[in-house]
Amino acid sequence: MDKLWLIIKREYLTRVKRRSFIIATLLTPLAFAVFFVVVGLIFQYESDDSKRIAIIDEGNVLQRSIKDEKNLYFKFVDVELDLLRENFGEFDYDGILVLPKVKDLLSKNYTVYYYSDNQPTLDIESLIRERVREGLKDYKIGALQLDPRQLEALDTRVELDPEPIDEAGENASQLTGAIAAGIGGVMGVIMYIVVFIYGMMVMRSVMEEKSNRIVEVMISSVKPFQLMLGKIIGVGAVGLTQVAIWAILIPVIVFLSTLVFGFDSQTHMEMAQNSAAADFNPEDTEAMIALALEEFRGLNWWMIIPLFVFYFLGGYFLYSSLFAAVGSAMGDDLGEGQSLTIPITIPVVIAFYIMIVAIEAPNSSLAVWSSIFPLFSPIVMPARLAFSPPLWEVLVSMVVLAGSSIFFVWLSGRIYRVGILMYGKKVTLRELGKWMFYRD
Amino acid sequence: MANSILSLDNIVKTYDKNIAVDGVSFEVPRGSIFGLLGPNGAGKTSLIRIITTITRADSGTVYLDGEKLGGSHPEQIGYMPEERGLYRKMKVGEHLTYLARLKGLSAPLAREKIDYWLGKFEISDWWNKKVEELSKGMQQKIQFIATVVHQPKLLILDEPFSGLDPVNTNLLKGEIHQLKEEGVSIIFSTHRMEQVEEICEHIVLIDKGRNVLEGRVKDIKNHFKKNLYRISYSGELPDGLESRAEIVEQTDHNITLQVGEQGQSNHLLQYLLQQGVFIHSFNEILPTLNEIFIRQVQGEN
Asked: Which of B287, B25, B192 minimizes the C-alpha distance to B295?
């Protein structure tokens, strides 16, 4: 036990103290922050050349009022269009907007004309259309002598609030599904990355020890299994450390960068909504965000986080032990052993795709069964956790995963002890299978 | 048995269908330097791995200091494999501490022993150097320290001098002899026969998984000697010489003769002196271990 602890300590400390680890751990959140800032800046970017547009409102549709935009100025003019066009160069206008008289108040179509040397850009075009539409609406309301409040009432927003049959059940709001899918997706992706990054780290480290020839010195002091287990635990602890640091740093840095650069997610939403030109109400977004935050807080984090850590460890142990076994069989040449890693990577990739489907249909039989199957469950189950799956499913999945992890660590240990002493031989999968049954 | 530090009894080890060790038995006398010899692929490494508890024999028993080999014994054995390496990214001090602690030393004791050995090799200032900064010869020193730092009863050195320059080879030889004086038993595995002759008192020769020869170096040499004598002389050799001894080789004033029995060398010398031959030197030619080794291994074929 003492020796195992010594091995774990060495594997952990040498990695954590390495400059590359510190850089990767700190730079990744920074990269996230830079990403957010860049995306924010791109969204914030607005055309910097200002445009002046003359409006000839023949039917007085807008009643001489239109809001100016940043870099876009409107001016109502009472000049004839022909005169304006002939002398276009002398006026300092970029375009002339002509609003003809409304002939039929009940027509759903209305065409305005835009005279310019340049094609109107997309945002200008949609902005003009939107402004004219609003003005025309008010104009029609006045002309048809309608009651604006009655009109408003016609446009009812319908919401769907899921309620449990059982009164004691948790009340979910309309956002629960979306939030759970988001969290599930993030967790599934993290698990996928964890399995690959740290599993590969274990494999490389095993290969290094073997090609370094330190391994024979090591196993004259400790059992091969202790060495493998110590390495897996040590690297796993490195992984947990890194993920924990990211879990704290990424939100902090993203939050700080939004403060510094003075924009937030709400602006993004506004932008998105603006361009969609839907009828948009800022109060609605605020309410949505508040609701989402409430939902987010309302999730059973005391259940989700420990379970996430459990699946992190279970999946990590299972896969990294397999990577260790493969690493022990490889020689100095990484390319040569590539074919041996394929049988490990395939289930991981399949699990990833099942995870994506499982987020959309978290209670489908595919999702349920693959969250019990141990090669898939470490990636699929965390993605389902936010949907509060039935307790029995979680328990069965946990028991199966724990059992299989122990089994795979044991099995890999049997391959490992033979593999690390085998040199200069190209190994096939069949041989790996034989090694399991070698005597000590 | 009581006088043996290590005793192997009918060890068998097979890999898949290959028999690596096929019923080997030998005893390593306590406090001796013992040569484990054999051509490549003879089963030396397999045997060493069994002794160091890296693998287990299919059948047969190993006794270390009278006890059946078991889980606590690695701490009493120091093993320097032929293919040896170190963690390149670790510092020398850290690395030695790690290996010493894995051999069961407490942290302060490990520190004390490492300081002693670094001091002995006059490399105390290497503590904070990274292994990858060291030359191959320097790394060998670190590996040697790692092998002996926990004061093992039994030291197993597999080709310890490979890659060492003559100065460091001598240094290491000195250390090996000193450890022997301190009562450490040493198994020395190599196929460099001149080193075996210089260092070892006992040997065992393994070929194709079996031991073909075992015993004291002196006894083995005597056993294989052919009663050859080289004489360097001046004057004329008598004609009757051929009836008394067989001439093996004759050059200018040097002759190699083979006599029937050991005692006859005296008669031969007497006869030559009586015949008025001037004798400058008269030496018995003992076979080198190299010759014995080759004869044994090829004879099997």
From this structure: B287
Residues A205-223 as b or e (16 or more Cβ within 10 Å = b):
bbbbbbebebbbbbbbbbb
Contact A194, A239 (CB under 8 A): yes
The chain B residue lying nearest A206, using CA atoms, is B87
Q: Residues of chain A whose pLDDT is less than 50?
A: 264, 268-269, 271-280
Task: Please state the domain extents for chain A.
Answer: 2-37+172-435, 51-154
Contact B58, B12 (CB under 8 A): yes
Question: Taking the alpha carbons of A176, A179, A180, A181 in that order, is the dihedral positive or negative?
Answer: positive
Q: Please report the ipTM that was assigned to this predicted complex.
A: 0.83
Whose tokens are 């094609």? That residue is A119
Residues B60/B209, Cβ–Cβ less than 8 Å: no
A217 and B84 within 8 Å at the Cβ level: the answer is yes
The pLDDT value recorded for residue A236 is 92
A residues 204-223 lying closer than 8 A (beta carbon) to B: 209, 212-214, 216-222
Class of the CATH-defined domain A51-154:
alpha beta
Residue of B nearest to A223 (CA): B54
Using alpha carbons, select from A364, A368, A395 the residue that is nearest to residue A380.
A368
User: 383-422 in A: which are within 8 Å (CB) of B?
Assistant: 421
Listed by start position, the domains of chain B span: 4-221, 226-285
Cβ–Cβ < 8 Å for A51, A95: yes
Condensed to tens digits (0 to 9), the pLDDT of residues B190-202 reads 878 888 888 888 9
Which amino acid does the sequence have at B73? H
DSSP string, A125-190: HHHHHHHHHHHHHHHHHHHHT--HHHHHHHS---------SSTTSPP--TTHHHHHHHHHHHHHHH
B187-221 in b/e burial notation, b at 16+ Cβ within 10 A?
Answer: bbbbeebebbbebbebbbbbbbbbbbbbeebeebb
**pLDDT tier at B275, thresholds 50, 70, 90:** confident
For domain B4-221, which architecture applies?
Answer: 3-Layer(aba) Sandwich (3.40)
Q: What is the CA radius of gyration of chain B?
A: 24
Question: Is B52–A212 a contact, with Cβ atoms under 8 angstroms apart?
Answer: no
Q: What DSSP line would sit under B216-263, residue for residue?
A: EHHHHHHHH---EEEEEEESPPPTTHHHHSEEEEEETTEEEEE-SSTT
User: Nearest Cα to A217, choosing from B266, B156, B71?
Assistant: B156
Under 8 Å between Cβ of A427 and A341: no
pLDDT in tens, B28-59: 999 899 999 888 888 888 899 899 888 888 88
Residue B91 confidence class, pLDDT cut points 50, 70, 90: very high
Tell whether B86 is within 8 A of chain A (Cβ): yes
